């Protein structure tokens, strides 16, 4: 079991960010939301570890751990 | 006035005047069961087999019309087998293993229950509920003929109860007028809208789901090439329903289930022309007869406690779930399985009243597990928020191209028996054995030559020894435990070893009358086993 990484971890983060925005280019709000939802599921499956996923959900909800 | 609330499929216990109605003082019965549905009759079978006098009062005179519950799970059938009526059910029922899930027109997912070999009963059978009930009542009549102290009284409606410290006073209405009875114990098996719950002013809390489902049971005319599989559609493209289910029953009857939304005009939707409109959109040119139809809504609710002094609640009266996952009648049967032997021991003075409290703790645990699974399926099938719908649709969209998303598709997680982990009746696990047979588990079946393990366990406490010595019988404070001696020399399939030994070379299992494991260890140790028996009967 590993802890959720909350320090910089992506090489070429600007490239990734640009690719993320570009993937949404030209989509309606509805289609963009659907794409995000699919992305969450794809990435969640890649992470796999249940505890890490719970930490990620809490981090995204901006719940700080004591 | 004594009107039927529903039409009967079979009139099996017509009203007859009972001698109790002419007695000056109320007659006292050890156990009265309220309701002659599948759970009430199972209660009568369980107690009757133990020789405990049991009286069933039902406000109708037989089995209600309509397919209703159609999916009966392995554990439910094993319990029926213990009562002696599992085999006719298996003969009549349709066995199925494959399920397909469609989104719009595309198949996104197919599953096979891949039934494990070496069990007397399959994972599921489909069968109309009136058959299930009739087989139980046939068995009940057979036991009565053999002298079992069971009685059913039709058109005996309980109108009021007064719960005392050591008995219950019961007011009964009949076509000949009212009479009063007393019972040492009362078991409420009177269904989801339980009048008994209302009479006792007890709460039933949980979630109501805002959706309705239209059931149409149909018989196809001519050749139809639907296989014996469970087919489930999310957003079927014919547009008749937000989801749809197709499932086969005996007698060439098919269950079609349409999710039709919350704000519907029930009378309008139930008109045959409107049901046919939906069916025709799905079936195209196929000709069919309509057998039965109904509209249902559902809720996931339970009572805070299933025991209230001298009164127990079982089945839908105690807990209600959505139909997704076949957890209604199946969990009700597990309630009866759990309550029967405990009530029997207490009535016979062989166990303390405290044993009965464990009916509540163990079955509340079971109900919560069912409600959790059923709620999750329901949230997937009928998403409550926009985001829930978006995520659901995303899972469906991903499940065709990518295998990872398929297990997330939830069109009903099918019922499996509850394990009573943490129950006060369990002794600490002392065997390095398989996880699936740890204390609290329901015993998995094993083939033994022409027979099966569960058939040999019967209805009493059993000491199952595998490659281990032990006395043939142990008497502990009134409780008799008989030994069932097996060895791995007579285990040609290796399933006994796989399911009960694992890496261990020998084992001794203490098994409760409901076929759940109470304790296990590598060898016989008299003190340890006696302590485990005391514990399993609520004496520790």
From TrEMBL, chain A:
- Entries under InterPro entries matching the protein: DUF2783
Q: Which organism is it from?
A: Shimia litoralis
Q: In its UniProt entry, what is this protein called? A: DUF2783 domain-containing protein
UniProtKB/TrEMBL annotation, chain B:
- Identify the residues that the record assigns to the FAD-binding domain, covering every copy: 30-372
Q: One Pfam family from the UniProt entry?
A: FAD_binding_3
Name a GO molecular-function annotation: FAD binding
Q: Which domain of life is it from?
A: Bacteria
InterPro entries for the chain: FAD-bd (IPR002938), FAD/NAD-bd_sf (IPR036188), RIFMO-like (IPR050641)
Which cofactor is essential here?
Answer: FAD
Q: What is the name of this protein?
A: FAD-dependent oxidoreductase
Q: Which organism is it from?
A: Shimia litoralis
